[in-house]
Amino acid sequence: MTSPVSRSLKSFASPGMRVPPSGYTALELDTLSDTELRDAHAELASWIEEALSMPLNGAPSDDVYDAVYGRLSAISQVRAQRQREDLGSRDGGRF
């Protein structure tokens, strides 16, 4: 059985709008390095900006947009938590 997001991705045929980065939902955020999180955040944020700039007839479905936005939010939360932990460390997060 496929999810609504999977079905939306399969039927995603907007000319000019790229599909979301592959595997973005499969990422185990806790296992990624800070650099990998930053890169994933930048890639998904770029996709969101592109999706928001598309005309309605070329934009991704709400399900796809919501899934990407939700993942971007989760990445932001992990990054913020790590920054809070770094600030609370003895060296203030400096190496």
Structural topology:
Elements (H helix, E strand, L loop, with lengths): L3 H7 L23 H20 L8 H26 L8
Helix pairs in contact: 2-3
Which of globular, elongated, flat, extended, rod-shaped describes the shape?
elongated
Span of the ends, CA to CA: 47 Å
Helix percentage = 55-70%
How would you describe the oligomerization state of the chains in this entry? single chain
- As a percent range, the share of strand residues is under 5%
Largest sheet: none
pLDDT average, as an integer?
81
- How large is the radius of gyration? 16 Å
Alpha-beta classification: mainly alpha
Q: H/E element string? A: HHH
Number of strands: 0
Could you write a compact summary of the structure shown?
The chain has 95 residues and is mainly alpha-helical. 56% of the residues lie in helices and 0% in strands.
What does this structure look like?
This protein has 95 residues and is an all-alpha fold. The chain has a domain of 60 residues. It contains 3 helices and no strands. α2 runs antiparallel to α3. It is elongated, with a radius of gyration of 16 Å. The N terminus is likely disordered.
